[in-house]
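Open question from group meeting: does this chain pack into something compact, or does most of it stay loose? Before anyone orders reagents, we agreed to write out a predicted structure and look at it together. Recording both the input and the output here so the notebook holds the full record.
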Amino acid sequence: MTFAIIEHFKNDKVPEMPWSSKHADLGIFTWNFNKFSDPKIISISQLCSLFALADVPLRGQGCAWVTISLDHLTQEPNTLNLDLDEE
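Structure tokens returned:
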């Protein structure tokens, strides 16, 4: 079994944005800068979107990976189910 360790973005007290009423249609969500949930282990099969993977150098610490969503064909869900333990 292959797994991934993830940390969801947080969106506590984020101001309303002009696109907020259409965020599901646009696939644009607003999150707190550099704020994450506790790490969670999930099955790699739960990662189901297309994304790009980029290397980003970190001064004195090697590099990190950054993923960028490329799914422009399907609509984002109306609600985000961030508790994926049951799947």
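Observations to bring back to the group:
Residues 25 and 75 are 6 Å apart (CA to CA).
Helices lie at 23-26.
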